[in-house]
Write a structure and sequence with these properties.
Strand 4 and strand 5 form a beta hairpin. Strands 1, 2, 3, 4, 5 and 6 form a six-stranded antiparallel β-sheet that branches. The longest helix is centred in the N-terminal third of the chain and has 21 residues. Helix 2 runs parallel beside helix 4 and helix 6 runs parallel beside helix 8. The chain is of the alpha+beta class and about 280 residues long. It is elongated and about 75 Å long. The chain contains twelve helices and six strands. The protein folds into two domains: about 50 residues, SH3 type barrels; about 180 residues, Tetratricopeptide repeat domain (Serine Threonine Protein Phosphatase 5, Tetratricopeptide repeat), CATH 1.25.40.
Length: about 280
């Protein structure tokens, strides 16, 4: 074996050994430190961070102060949290996209360790994505439910709600999914409502109800939520396919032109052009 080959294999082996170290698979549970910002603007502790944990039975944060004093702050008095990002979260997210099984232990640990401490939501989202890549939607639902049990609002907006809907759909939990989407449509912000309508259209498409998917899902988003720009490419692409399935080719061509002209850099346009 020549020198270059030995160097290459050493690099590969080093990467295999280093991966779990980067992900930070530590045997002991780390102490989470942070600060609570109360609704009156007060920060506890005033300077720096202190040991902090969530007490689910009482819906309170416990903060360890100097001298062994513990302060309790009820959730309804909390405006926000200052909790540094776990050092191993970014590496775990990267691994979750390439080799999801290697990231799962670390992400699971963060979800449990940071319950109601800000970073459980982000970790749960990527943990669910990893499980979905592994074709394990029920496990994805389990961990997202774990976050929702403590923080129901966490799965009602943002990217995590879409991951939750996808997991419910792939797990075949359609009744729960429909209820969740209805809740989002009735009480969510406009961007969440727009995406929930698309997800509702997907359910109807799965059931073979192409017309309902088109009218109640994709077209509703296109016509009534034009201000939610990030939802438009997906709605246009799916409306185009629904029209094609119904044999309405002129309507399909209309949405195709709009997609390509108005959102040329979207993944849906790039896919039509054969660029992705």
């Amino acid at each position: 074996m020549n020198t270059s080959c030995r160097i290459t294999w050493r690099a590969v082996l080093a990467g295999l050994i280093l991966a779990p170290l980067l992900l930070g698979a530590s045997p002991a549970r780390a102490e989470v430190r942070g600060a609570v910002i109360k609704i009156n603007g007060q920060r506890v502790p005033n300077n720096g961070l202190a040991p902090i944990r969530w007490l689910p039975s009482q819906k309170k944060y416990l903060i360890g102060m100097p001298g062994g004093v513990t302060i309790q702050i009820a959730l309804d008095q909390v405006k926000g949290l200052d909790v540094p990002k776990p050092a191993n979260l970014d590496a775990a997210v990267q691994y979750s996209q390439r080799t999801p099984s290697s990231a799962i232990p670390t992400l699971e640990g963060i979800v449990k360790e940071y319950t109601m401490l800000k970073w459980d939501v982000s970790a749960a989202r990527w943990l669910a994505e990893a499980y979905l890549k592994m074709k394990k939607p029920k496990e994805a639902v389990e961990y997202l439910d774990m976050v929702a049990d403590s923080n129901p609002d966490a799965i009602r907006s943002g990217e995590i709600c879409r991951t939750y809907w996808q997991a419910l759909r792939q797990a075949g939990l359609i009744v729960r999914l429909k209820k969740t989407l209805l809740d989002a449509i009735e009480s969510g912000p406009r961007d969440t409502v727009a995406m929930a309508q698309i997800a509702r259209g997907d359910i109807e498409m799965d059931a073979g109800n192409t017309k309902d998917a088109l009218v109640d899902g994709y077209l509703r988003t296109i016509m009534l939520f034009q201000d939610v720009k990030h939802a438009q490419p997906e709605a246009l692409a799916k409306a185009m396919k629904a029209h094609e399935k119904l044999g309405e080719h002129s309507h399909a061509e209309k949405w195709k032109r709009k997609l390509l002209n108005d959102y040329p850099e979207s993944s849906y346009s790039r896919n039509l052009k054969g660029l992705e």
